[in-house]
């Protein structure tokens, strides 16, 4: 009887440990990707894309090179 | 093929068509220079103002902090090298946050300021300029956390929309700049003077690295220069070095070294000298330079004691502390 109870307790313990690990993993994933969710584009807006190719300030043509 | 010369920073990169500048993110396409990370930050956080560090500017307020990839310096001890020493195409995360969206989100998050920080915001200059103008329209302040390796003309233009600058003066030695940072000292000193002349609130940070820039004589010269050129009330943050990136061979700065450096800076006449990156150090806090009263107590980035009057004075002797203590000083009272 003792052995059966011990096994049952061990199974419950394992399940709890696995459950806890799973919850921690899910929380980790959530935190890892939270910023992307927080700032994701609005529906219909294109996703973030690199580069943006904005015209830069403060430069001049340099025909000496190239 | 038309090359272009980038005139933003003292490097003056001559960039052939299809190439990028030393910062990796300013590229020459068809003879026109393009800022490739405009509106594309790779780091977006809400930080306390004390993290910048800005101790005399809206203390205790949240600041919406952004950075894109790239940097115009290459410090061997960079603490953000995953961000600063990469181009935009190498980043895992690139957010789309164009200036109007950035200001809208900062406002929604109830931030009083936006900080352009982490890497060096000089390299995403146009993004800062446009965002800062919109931020002012929304009564949000602009903080620029930089190594100040920038030319005078772009800096002075940007100063019109900046409210606070924390400038990293890495050492008072040109050889150090060349060896450790890949830059030079003089443009940085000129930039700090320009920020002061333009009337932008300025705090200076010096990271004290064992054996490289921790000589008392050098700290004294640096502090004396800050005193003479920027004013005795300019806060100086002496920060503790931690082994990082390509400088893991050196130990963290001993606290005694920082204490000695602080004494040198106080001897040079500076009134507000802080020790950074040492949790619970008494010199994290602000004291009245006249009567020594504890005015702002800090533990880490938390404020544990605040005794300044509403207009930034010591309650004991009525001395006005230099700084910007309320956003009303910038934008007037909010309705």
Low-confidence parts of chain A lasting 5 or more residues at pLDDT below 50? none
Distance between the termini of chain B: 56 Å
Provide a count of the helices of chain B.
Answer: 9
How do the SSEs of chain B run, as a string of H and E?
EEEEEEHHEHEHEHHEHEHEEEEH
Sum up the overall morphology of chain A in one term.
rod-shaped
Number of alpha- plus pi-helical segments of chain A: 1
The H/E string of chain A reads: HEE
Which regions of chain B contain 5 or more consecutive residues with pLDDT less than 50? Answer: none
Instruction: Characterize the main sheet of chain B.
Output: 8 strands, mixed
Shape of chain B: globular
Oligomeric nature of the chains: heterodimer
**Distance between the ends of chain A:** 87 Å
List the helices and strands and how they pair.
The complex is a heterodimer of chains A (66) and B (335).
Chain A: H1 2-38, E1 54-55, E2 59-62
Chain B: E1 3-6, E2 14-15, E3 26-29, E4 32-35, E5 43-48, E6 62-67, H1 81-84, H2 99-108, E7 113-116, H3 125-137, E8 141-146, H4 152-159, E9 164-168, H5 174-181, H6 186-197, E10 201-208, H7 216-230, E11 236-240, H8 255-267, E12 273-276, E13 286-287, E14 294-299, E15 302-306, H9 328-331
Parallel strand pairs in B: 6-7, 7-8, 8-9, 9-10, 10-11, 11-12
Antiparallel strand pairs in B: 1-2, 3-4, 5-6, 13-14, 14-15
